[in-house]
Amino acid sequence: MAPPPPDTPAAPAAPFDGQEFGARIRALRMERGLSLRKVAGLLGISPSALSQIERGKMRPSVTRLYAIMSALDAPVTAAFSDDHPGSASAPAAAAPPGDDGVVVARSGEAATLTLGHGVRYRRLTPVATPGVNLFESTYPPGACSSQNAEFVAHNGREIGNVVSGALTVDVGFDSYELGPGDSIAFSSGTPHRITNNGTVPAVAIWMNLAG
């Protein structure tokens, strides 16, 4: 069975709070004084499509999420919760619970987003860390990181390690097959895409560094 296309309406049973996610996107846009039409133009999509994302009626692909957050000049972690830099409602700094600066987040507390193609991102940083986005990403069979499997490029650098399953990472004109324990690092400015061409879900730890 072919995988569902990205940016498609979210299934009711999916572990994705579309309204909460959309509300955060809208709040960031409003804080920056940007109109729906302006941001949609930056993304190359219709205002109606962006409105559906903000209303929780449509889930973006992985690369669409990065494009949205880039257009809003906000870290990807801002899509998970309000405890992030760059939000008017966020505290000036993340306050650790103790004087030793240690912050612990238990497994069940990790924020999760399910995006287009059913790709699931689980945030691994216990608090917002400027310049660093660390996730556990799960790609179902046939899933791709981008809309219509196109190559995309953005600022920063990426480092990934496959935990289970297999991923195909296309960077520029080269293709890399990664299995359990394999790692890759590359400039996000080079056109790239990530695909699970296998028959089982692929899980990877992925780090995006601001550039």
UniProtKB/TrEMBL annotation:
Q: Write down what this protein is called.
A: Helix-turn-helix domain-containing protein
Q: Has the keyword Electron transport been applied to this entry?
A: no
Which CDD domains does the record cross-reference, listed alphabetically? cupin_XRE_C, HTH_XRE
Question: Per the record's keyword annotation, is DNA-binding included, yes or no?
Answer: yes
Q: What is the originating organism of this protein?
A: Nocardiopsis sediminis
Residues in domain HTH cro/C1-type? 25-79
* Organism taxonomic ancestry: Bacteria, Bacillati, Actinomycetota, Actinomycetes, Streptosporangiales
**Keyword terms, alphabetized:** DNA-binding
